[in-house]
Amino acid sequence: MELTLQPTSRWQWLRTPQPWITLTLGLGFYFLVLFFEGKPIPSWPYQPMMGQTAFLLVCLGMMGAMWYFHQKSWIFWLMTNLFAFGFAAATMLVWQALETGPGGIGSDAWFNTAIVVKQRAGMGNGDFAYKGLHAFYPSLYQLVVGKLAALTHTPGLKAMKYGFYWAAFLLPLVSYGLWRKLLPALPAFLMMVLSMTIARENLSFKTFEVISVIIFLPWALYYVVGLRLREAEGEASWSVGVLERKEWIAGGLIAGLSFMTFYYYFFLLILWLPLQVVIASRSEGLANIWAKFRPMLLMFLVMMALSAVYWAPLLGDMMRYGMHSYQNRWFQPHMLEMPFDIMNNWRGMLGLVGLLALAPRNALARSVLVMMVAVTAYVLLGHLGLYNNFPLLHVRMLVLDEYLLSIGMIMGVLKLLSLVPDFVQKNWDKAFAVTVATVFAMSIAMVYNYESNNDLTNSAKSYKQPQLLGLAEFTPVSRGKVFLTNRLELAALRPLYLFICPNAHYTHPASRYRERLKLLTLLQHSKDSDFIAWMLQHNRYDRVDMIILDDNRMELFDDNFPDWPNHLKIPIEFDSTAFKGRFFSQHPQFGELKVAEEVPVELWKGFNQGQMRFAALFSDIPELRSRIPGAEMKLLDDEVRIQTKDYTAWQRAFWARWMGGW
Question: In this model, does residue 481 exceed pLDDT 60?
Answer without folding.
Answer: yes
